[in-house]
Specification:
Length: 325
C-alpha cells in the first residue's frame, strides 16, 4: 500500500520536534521551511551572499536525518564569540551556504545534503529567494524584517512577504505546490505564529495550494504565548489568525495541549520570549474547525515547555489512518 504523504510547514525550533518523531513512522514526509529569517547567523549570511537563510533548514535537516550523534554535533557546532568573522555561526549554516553558492541555489544544496545525510523525506525551502517579512500592526504601523517585529509595542494585525532583492512577487520553490496538492495531510506548526508559520502561508502559490488541496490540514497549536506576537492569545485566536490570512477556514483539525505547565517552572531568563500558557477556548475552536484533539502534549525540559513529538505524531497518525479508511 502507498505510504501516507504528510507535509509539514513551518520553521524555527517547533517543526523539527514533529519531524524527528514522524520520520520513524511509515510515511512519506516533506518539510517546507520558512526563508524569512533575517537575524543572527542566518541574517548575516543571507545579507552577504544574497541566498535564502540556512538556519531553519539546518535544524530540519538534522531532525530528519539518521546521522550519528557525533556528525550532528559537528554540523550544529557554533563558533565561539572570540572567533572574529566566524563568531556565532553554526558550522552547518556555512556548509549549506557554501553548497548553495556552488550549486546556484539553496534548494539544490538541500537536495544534495538530504542524500549526504540519509534524510528520511524531502526538504524544500518555501521559496528559492530570500524573503522579507512585513508586519502591519493594529495601529497601522509597519515593521519590515522578522528580527525587528517583536521590538515594536503593539498587536500585529497581519503579515506579508516580499522578495528581499527584487520587486517580483514571491513564488514557491519548485515541487512545493505539488507536494501540498499530493499530500494526505498538511501539518502547520508548531512554531511562532507570525514569524515561523505565516511567512510560508502568505506566499501566494502556497496560500492557493492550501485552499485547493484535498488534504487534511492540521494545526499544532503553541503551548506558550510569545512576546511581541501572541500576548493574551487563546488557541482559538491562533486559528482565527491563520484562517484570516488564508482567506477562508482552511484548518480542519487543531491539536491543543491541555496539560498545565507547573507554576514558576519556566526559566524566563533562558526563554525570555515566552510569556504564559496559551488558554484553551473550546467553543471558539469549534466555530472554526471540524475537529479538536485536546490532550497532554507537554514535554518539560531545561526550564522550557515544548511539545512531546511522539505524543503529537501518535495523534497525527491516528488521524491520517482514519482519513484513509
Amino acid at each position: 500500500m502507498r505510504k501516507p504523504k504528510i507535509t509539514v510547514i513551518g520553521g524555527g525550533t517547533g517543526i523539527p520536534v514533529i519531524l524527528n518523531s514522524l520520520r520513524h513512522e511509515e510515511v512519506d514526509i516533506t518539510a517546507i521551511v520558512t526563508v524569512a529569517d533575517d537575524g543572527g547567523s542566518s541574517g548575516a549570511l543571507r545579507s552577504v551572499m544574497q541566498l535564502t537563510p540556512p538556519g531553519d533548514l539546518r535544524n530540519v535537516l538534522v531532525a530528519m536525518s539518521d546521522m550519528p550523534k557525533f556528525y550532528e554535533k559537528v554540523f550544529q557546532y557554533r563558533f565561539a564569540e572570540g572567533d572574529g568573522p566566524l563568531a556565532g555561526h553554526p558550522l552547518g549554516n556555512l556548509i549549506i551556504s557554501g553548497i548553495a553558492e556552488m550549486e546556484g541555489s539553496t534548494y539544490s544544496a538541500m537536495q544534495i545534503l538530504t542524500k549526504f545525510f540519509h534524510v528520511t523525506g524531502k526538504i524544500y525551502p518555501a521559496s528559492e529567494n530570500p524573503l522579507t517579512l512585513h508586519a502591519v500592526f493594529k495601529d497601522g504601523y509597519e515593521v519590515a524584517g522578522e528580527s525587528h517585529i517583536a521590538g515594536y509595542q503593539g498587536m500585529i494585525d497581519h503579515v506579508y512577504v516580499t522578495n528581499t532583492y527584487n520587486d517580483d512577487e514571491p513564488t514557491a520553490s519548485r515541487k512545493v505546490v505539488d507536494a501540498i496538492m499530493d499530500s494526505d495531510m498538511i501539518v502547520l506548526g508548531p512554531g511562532s505564529l507570525f514569524t515561523s508559520i505565516l511567512p510560508n502561508l502568505v506566499i501566494p502559490e502556497i496560500k492557493q495550494a492550501l485552499i485547493d488541496t484535498k488534504a487534511e490540514v492540521a494545526y499544532v497549536c503553541n503551548i506558550m504565548t510569545q512576546y511581541g506576537e501572541t500576548e493574551h492569545f487563546t488557541d482559538a485566536d491562533h486559528v482565527e489568525v491563520l484562517n484570516r490570512h488564508l482567506g477562508k477556514d482552511v484548518i480542519d483539525t487543531v491539536l491543543v495541549n491541555i496539560q498545565k505547565v507547573p507554576q514558576d517552572y519556566m526559566d524566563h531568563n533562558k526563554f525570555d520570549e515566552y510569556l504564559v500558557q496559551v488558554e484553551h477556548d473550546f467553543a471558539g475552536l469549534r466555530k472554526q474547525v471540524k475537529r479538536v484533539i485536546s490532550s497532554d502534549f507537554l514535554r518539560l525540559e531545561n526550564g522550557g515547555a515544548f511539545h512531546n513529538g511522539d505524543y503529537v505524531v501518535e495523534e497525527l497518525m491516528n488521524l491520517v489512518r482514519m482519513k484513509k479508511r
